[in-house]
Structures are given as C-alpha cells and as structure tokens.
Amino acid sequence: MRRMMAAFVALALLASPAVHAVQPDEIMSDPAKETRARDLSRELRCMVCQNQSIDDSDAPLARDLRLLVRERIAAGDSNSQVLDFLVARYGEFVLLKPRFERQTMLLWLLGPLLLTGGGLALWLQIRRRARSGADLPAPPLTPDEEARLAALMSDETKRS
Amino acid sequence: MIAESGHYALVLALGLALIQSIVPLIGARLRDDALMNVARSTALAQLLFVGASFVALVMLHVNSDFSVANVYENSHSMKPLLYKITGVWGNHEGSMLLWVSILALFGGLVAAFGNNLPLSLRAHVLAVQAWIASAFYLFILVTSNPFLRIASPPIEGRDLNPVLQDIGLAVHPPMLYLGYVGFSISFSFAIAALMEGRIDAAWARWVRPWTLVAWIFLTLGIAMGSYWAYYELGWGGWWFWDPVENASLMPWLAGTALLHSALVMEKRNALKVWTILLSILTFSLSLLGTFLVRSGVITSVHAFATDPTRGVFILLILCLFIGGSLSLFAGRATSLKQGGLFAPISREGALVLNNLLLTVACAVVLFGTLYPLAMEMLADFKMSVGAPFYNLTFAPLFTLLLLAVPFGPMLAWKRGDLLGVTQRLLAAGVAGLVVVAIVWAWTRGGSALAPLAIGLGVFVIAGAVTDLVERTGLVRLPFATVLHRTRGLPRSAWGSALAHAGLGVALIGIVCETTWNSEYIATMKQSDVAHVAGYDVKLDGLFQRQGPNYREMIAEFNVSRDGEALSVMTPSKRSFTTRGSSTTEAALLTRGASQLYISLGDANAEGAIAVRIYHKPLVLLIWWGPVLMAFGGVLSLSDRRLRVGAPKPARAKQRLQPAE
C-alpha cells in the first residue's frame, strides 16, 4: 500500500512496452562524467512522477531529463550550472533538495531550531526542578518502610 | 446475498459502536457497573460483525463475483487464489474495511483481556475506541462502500494492479495497519486518563504492552514494505522518502518515543504529561498517514480538489480527533501532578534525550512531507522535498541518537554516573574505532564518512552486548553465578538490548549498501558475460512462458565466481493482458547477507536485452535490523511483569524486582 500510489502513477505513465530507468544507450563514455550525471540525477525530480528522482524513474520525461543533464555535462557545465539551467527551465519544483531561500528557510531551519530550543528548555526545566527538589529534605523513613527496606536488601543479596 | 449481508453487518457494527460510544460513559458518570459493562459486550459484538463483513468481502473476491464493483475493479477470475484474497486490501474500500476490522480487533482484545483494568477506565477506553470506530464506519458507508453492486454485471474483472500481486503485499498492509491502528489503544487510554483526571504508574504499565504490540507490527510492516519495494519495483531501491512512506515512518518515530517515555512513567512516575501528549500525537500521526494516503492529497493538491468527498471526510475525522484530543489535553494536562525528580544525567535524562531526538526527527519528516503542500496552497510556490533533503537533515539527528543509545540503559535511575558508564563502554568504543580503522584501511581513498558510520553501528551493537555482560556479570563473576543471573535477568532487558543492537545492524546494512553498491547496466546478447563485483554473470538465453494471468519473458543467467559455477538466476518481465501493464520480477542471489540482483529491461529486435545487475553488499542487514528490533519487542512483551499487567497493591511485595 505504501508504494501503491507511486506504483499506480508510475504504471499509468509507463507507455508499454515498459522502459527502464537509466538505459544502456544513455551512459556517457567518460566514467567520471557519468558519475556526476548519476549524482545529479538523484537530486532531480521527475516532474510527472510521484516523488521519484529521474535516476529511478521509468517515465519518458525522466529519460529526456537524464539526456539533458548529460548533454549539459558534455557541453562542459559545472554541476551547479546544470542545476541552474534546469531550475530556469522547470522551476524549483525540479530540485529534490530545495535551495536555502526565503520560502524554504523555515523548512531547513526547523530541525536545528527545534533541537536547540527543545534541548535548552529541557535543560533549564530539569535543572530548576532538580534544584527545587534538592531544597526539600527527604522525609525520614517510617519504621514500616525501614522493615520493608531491610527485607528487600536481604532478598537482593540472596539473589546475586 | 453475501454482499448485502456484509453491508448489513457493517451497518450493525456502526449501531453497536454508537451504543458503545455513549452508554459506558453514562455508566461511569452514574457509577453503574452494568452500564459500564455494556462496553465489553458491544466491543466483542462489534468485532463479530465487522469480522463477518470482512469475511463477506473476502468471499466475494474468492468467488469472483463481478456484480460487486469492488471485485470487478480489482479482481480477475484467472488470478491465483492467494491474490484474490490479498486483493481485498489492495484497493481503497477494502483496505479501509481492513482498517476498521483491525480497530475492532484491538477493541475486542481490550474487552476480552482487560479484566485487570479498573472498570471505569475500561469503560472510558472502549468508549473512545468506539468514537474512532463510528467515525470510520461512517466514512466507509458514506464514501467508500465496498459492497456496491453494478447494475449490469460484467463477465470478467479488470484484475488487480500487477505490482500488487505479490506475497509481500499479502503481508505488508495488515502488518502496517496492526501498527497504525494499534496505537489507537494508547490514544484511548490517554483520553480516558484525561477524562477521568487520574493517571499513575499503573496506567503506564497497562498502556505499555499495547504500545509495544503496535510498535512491533509497525516495525515489521515498514521493513516488509521496504523489502517488497526493493525486489518488486525493479531498481533495487529500498527507501524513497516518499510521502506515503513518511506517513508510516512518522507514527513509528513517535511510537518509539512513546515506548521510552512510558517506561519512565512506569518506573519513576515522571513525564506523565509528556507521555499522554505522545500517545495522542502518535495516533494523530497514524490518522494523518491514513488521510495522506487515502485522500490522494499527496499525488497532487489538484487531484484532491477534483474529488474531495473522501479527502474532506477524512480531514474532518482528523480535525475532530486531533483537535478534540489536544483541546482536552490543554484543558486537563495541568491538573496532572508531576512526580519523580531526576538529575539531568540519569536514565530518565537519557530517555528524555531519546524523546527529544525522536520527536525532532519526526517533526522534520512531518514538515518535509507537508511543507510543499502548504507552499503550493498558500504561496503558490511549487517545490519538492525529496531524499537528498531528508538524508541531510535526518542523518545528524540519528547519529546523535545512536551515539547516545549505548549510554541510556547503563545509566542509573535518578542520578547517573556518566564518567563511570563511559569507562564501562570503553571496550565498545574501542571496538567501534578498530572497525573504523580496518574499514578505512581496506577501502582506501573512499569517503571517511562510511567507515565512521559503520564504526558507529558497531559501537551500538557492542554497547548492547556490554550492557548484557554487565548485567549478567560475565567475565567478572564465577560461572554458576553468571548462569543464575542470566536466568534471573528480566526478558525486557534482553529485549531492549536486542532492539538497540538491531539499530546498529540496520545502520551497517544501510551504509554498506549505499556506499559499496556496484551496478552494471548494459544491453546483453546471448552468451555475453557481465563482470560485477567479482561475479561473472553469463546470459544463457531468453524464453517465454505463460502464467495464470500473464505472459512472461524469462532470461536465464549463469552466475559463477573464479570459474566456479554458483547458481542460475532467472529474472523475468511479466505482461498482464487485462491491464496491459507489466512488472519486472528481479532475480536475487543471496550470499551471506549480500545479494546479487538482476532485473530486465527491454528486448530489442536482434534478441539483445537491456539488463541491470547490482551487487548489494550486506544489504540484508537493512531488514535483519528491524526484525531484530521486533524480536526484542516480542521478548520484552513476554516479560512477566508486562504480561501480568499492573500488580494489585496487596500482591506488590512478591513482584518487586531488582531495579534495572
């Protein structure tokens, strides 16, 4: 069920006969460039799929994008130039890792903010409570409790 | 007849649920035992009727009764029997029926085995369960009735989506739902506690086994789904940070936090308010997951807008339950007394840290899943949040968490000695560092991150072992004593050690698979040989075969290593005539924990075929880890102290155990 929606979408888009992600004929002859192309592909979204990178997707559009990425790399673009090119063409939607911008700032900062904020709040609370607790002297044990404690302790030594 | 009976049974279940929603509460208000006991019988009767309704749908599918729309749309007379049955929950209506069936099952279990609960608590819990049940029965009956008939029945069905015709799908959704829905019990307990205004350590003891059961199923369900995606979708990926996956991961993260905070509450009577809040949040996230998956809102906001009936209905349920429970919480939480003081460095402190990290991780996933939706609706800004984002934000949080894991169980309650624990964990730390050095030397030139992560995994496993060694007194005590102590060690101690070790195991698998995965993509002709990670894979030939409801093209590969023949692998491509779609059946060769993975692409006119071969080192550890965690959960569940529930005060003395 979890992948069901994705599978449905993928299948719906799949023009039969089925094609596969990264076809043998797409691969660049220079292994270093091919590696770069693969790394970039993993960060780019296949826009007609549900949350799939163009590296994973079977859709024809993903293939076009993979070829486009390789074309730009072959033309001598740097990684960020390739990404800029694609964003200029298709918008921020194409990036699976959103850029740090005004609109995405909250998304990126949420984790660190929550962690430091939460950590700080907890630390202060625990310290305050520990201190207020330390001020109160522990009430002495009643004779009944003393007896139970003694029974427990002897039980404990027998056990180990 | 069967369809009508199933439909009628569901309506009756709704009626029973409505009674169960109200009568026990009146009973609790009037302190009338008979009225409160109504909850018990209605819960059991509800289970009976929903069960009957579910069986009716299964029978319709098995009989291939195509006069029922749900069967027509998702079944085929030639489909193997197993997939006729599993096809019941391979679609929206059927899966919602499974959802309420499991909800009724949990309600029935509380009714049947909750004899040691105070009567009014049980009445409240079952009433809250019935609220949830009523809402979802209504949802099914109004928007997603699986028993609808077609006026002029077709002769043949449209078949189930081929990707779903797989044994993995037979197991995955029921497991996942047992997890999702299982958290409804802790939710109901939390609401009951807020309504009664009474909560104590005994409450935590009642809640913990139920939470644990749900957590075990959710863990296995997620792992199962991940393995299914790995072998069925044909490109060897096992986690995609897809919103649908996130929907199951969020309750898991919150549920894991809940397990740990309930522990503090049970042992030390602290963190009460937080535990209640987590119970509410965990089930709310389960509901949110159901909403995300069932409303189609993630596929696109527009798809949601064009057919909003179901989506809006679930959204209403969502708002009602989350909003209602949180308001109740806000109103009542302050009246709950906090107890159990502890120093920052203590077992409690460690568990609080665990909760902080898990909650933040959960919030990050929640935000990542919903942020793009919000931006599109509010700011008309289309953006994506995918795997690279989550990897970047999730990894640091889990690194911190894993670093802390070995320390937690070794710290004392109330006030711990960090320095002492560090000394005791020295051996584990050294083991981790040695592994880092070995892996780094072995894979010279690679990134330093992978060896470090593997070292962290080893540290977590070694830490769990150290914990057990310390508790049993292995090495430092005479053998007979060790044996005695091993036998006396509570099973929950074994359970938590195993579960923690499972984290380390999974981490090692994840790192190895992502870092040293080798891949070979090419078009192969007959007798071509591919060399992948030391294996020689030779294509022997292609042939066709007819299956029950598909045709398949099989490629036969001979796999050998250093001239020694190992195995024959036969990946295939199936085309399903009814839906005109096809699936890739990958072939897997397991060697230890590593796997060789072959999947097929297209054949061309000259008889050559596109092939992808992967070698995935230690990939199976990714799933062995969760299995180990779940096994730890089962061990913990079998612990006497959890099984017997909360001890009655008079007998408490006999049950006192040495503090862990």
UniProtKB/TrEMBL annotation, chain A:
Protein's GO biological process:
cytochrome complex assembly
Any one GO CC term of the record: membrane
Residues making up the signal peptide according to the UniProt record: 1-21
Please tell me whether the keyword rRNA processing is annotated for this protein: no
Where it mainly occurs, coarsely classed, is membrane
Query: CDD domains per the record?
Result: CcmH_N
Tell me the superkingdom of the source.
Bacteria
Which keywords label this protein?
A: Heme, Iron, Membrane, Metal-binding, Signal, Transmembrane, Transmembrane helix
* Pfam families (alphabetical): CcmH
Instruction: State the membrane topology.
Output: Single-pass membrane protein
One GO term in the molecular function aspect is: metal ion binding
Q: Which InterPro entries match?
A: CcmH/CycL/Ccl2/NrfF_N, CcmH/CycL/NrfF/Ccl2_sf
Among its keywords, does the record have Transmembrane? yes
**Domain CcmH/CycL/Ccl2/NrfF N-terminal, which positions?**
10-153
Q: Where are the transmembrane segments?
A: 105-124
* Compartments reported by the entry: Membrane
Q: Which family does it belong to?
A: Belongs to the CcmH/CycL/Ccl2/NrfF family.
Name the job this protein performs.
Answer: Required for the biogenesis of c-type cytochromes. Possible subunit of a heme lyase.
Query: Could you tell me what this protein is called?
Result: Cytochrome c-type biogenesis protein
Automatic annotation (TrEMBL), chain B:
GO MF, one annotated term: heme transmembrane transporter activity
Q: Which Pfam families match?
A: CcmF_C (PF16327), Cytochrom_C_asm (PF01578)
Membrane disposition = Multi-pass membrane protein
InterPro entries associated with the record:
CcmF_C, Cyt_c_assembly, Cyt_c_biogenesis, Cyt_c_biogenesis_CcmF
Q: Which residues cross the membrane?
A: 6-30, 42-62, 96-113, 125-144, 175-195, 207-229, 249-266, 273-292, 312-330, 351-374, 394-413, 425-442, 448-469, 618-637
Q: What is the role of this chain?
A: Required for the biogenesis of c-type cytochromes. Possible subunit of a heme lyase.
Q: What is this protein called?
A: Heme lyase CcmF/NrfE family subunit
